[in-house]
Amino acid sequence: MSNAISTWFAEGTDWRKTGLEKLRSQIFSVTPTAIEVLKWGQPCYVLNGVYCYLQRAQRHITLGFPQGTKLQDPGKVLEGNGKQMRHLKFTSLEAIDEEMCTRFLREAALLDNQIRK
To answer: Which of 56, 75, 99, 102 has a 20 to 30 Å separation from 21 between CA atoms?
Structure first.
């Protein structure tokens, strides 16, 4: 892990820091071979390409997916209105649904593998 990434995760002391560390751990649990890089000022996780990223905002944290429009989202929980990116926004530590995140992470990893081969 680079010093820049360590510094990024060391920022803050509230629930967002704990939540981001929890999501980071979950990313590596789902995709242990993912490479963590700092891109666009935030941690991004690379398999064949960037398949997910984490983001910190003033009042929430985000788990994002560059190919989010291609993910199955029957519950319409993914947010965003860009051409492809979608994200999950969490406003508290308790709001992080590990089962849902795992499902999206697995699907995004599979999609990344199919698209970027």
So the answer is: 75
Would you state the structure tokens that stand for residue 58, as one six-digit string? 């003033």
Q: Which of 7, 62, 3, 52 is nearest to 28 (CA)?
A: 52
Any idea where the domains of the chain sit in the sequence?
3-115
| CATH class of the domain whose range is 3-115 | alpha beta
Question: Which residue do the tokens 């010093």 mark?
Answer: 3
68, with CB counted inside 10 A (0-12, 13-18, 19+), is: buried
Can you tell me the distance from the alpha carbon of 25 to that of 37, in angstroms, rounded to the nearest whole number?
15
Q: Which amino acid makes up residue 57?
A: A
Q: Which amino acid is at 37?
A: V
Evaluate whether 78 touches 65 at the Cβ level (below 8 Å). Answer: yes
- Mean pLDDT per segment of 10 residues, for the chain of length 117 residues? 85 92 97 94 94 96 96 95 95 96 96 72
